[in-house]
Amino acid sequence: MIDVVSFLPSRRKNTSSGWISFNAPCCVHRGENPDRRQRGGLKPTIEGGFSFHCFNCGYTASFVPGRNLTFKARKLLEWLGVDRTIIEQINLESLKHRSIHGLLESQRQVVKSVEFEERDLPGGLELINIDDPTHQPYRDYLDNRGIDCTAYPYMVSPTCAGRAGLRIVIPFTHNNMVVGNTARFIDNRQPKYISDAQPGYVFGNDLQKESWTQVIVVEGVFDALAINGLAVLHNDINPQQAQLIKSQGKDITVVPDQDAAGMALVDRAVELGWAVSMPQWPNGVKDVNDAVISMGKLATLLTIMQARETSKIKIELRKKQLVKRF
After folding, report:
1. What is the C-alpha to C-alpha distance for residues 322 and 67, in angstroms, rounded to an integer?
2. Which domains, and CATH codes, for the chain?
3. Which pTM value belongs to this model?
């Protein structure tokens, strides 16, 4: 559809998570100093689209084949030096793609009709880099939580003053478009998180693979990142989130936090007719991320699937066992 990589500057580098870093062209057009630290990040999709984030000025843009080029995507291509005639050709090819595959796509959209608006990320960020010594505290934090720092585009801001320099920013994506974010401060002071999340959003949809038959639904972002699951970001599942989760077309297992608040998620899962898993984890382990830290990813996934239950009676009995411990 579009080989956007061919339009990128020759001075660029590829990251292990699939991102391409280069000097962002947007900063100078948005009143910032020219980027000289390769803070532009672009990730091509196998369908021929792309997702772009500037970790300096916060500009984002994306393109999905079959849709019109958005204003922000057009501006990015212009700033990369793409001729406007070529941009119109790209848009025309995209619309042809939609007309050829329109019937199948419209059938999918009946289920996957939940959409979100594109949002900018905070400024002053840079992709976490395993070779940058100033990034070591952030890498240590993720490592201590059993999280691979190269498996997701984690962003940090070591040059920012105050608490802004102590945050790990996790972009929220939907169809490879940035629609929000959460910042986790690594000093453990309150508030621990500051988030920009749209109603009905589910974190982790873009982490799922077509070949997978199971999807695990958890509460927190780090729970989801630890096992490639979905996070509803609280202890409830609203109708829009339920629709998004069902659109995966996989067997669903809900794993609540093992505390009083988490039991509300159990009730909602039963309401939706989904399986629930409340494993017998070691003392002090209350959620999926705790379990991964304690036992490792594979062992955690095994305990989840072994404890998976669809019987309402057995779910209620297990829930009562847990409530006695609170």
Report:
1. 48
2. 4-111 (no CATH), 202-326 (3.40.1360.10)
3. 0.74
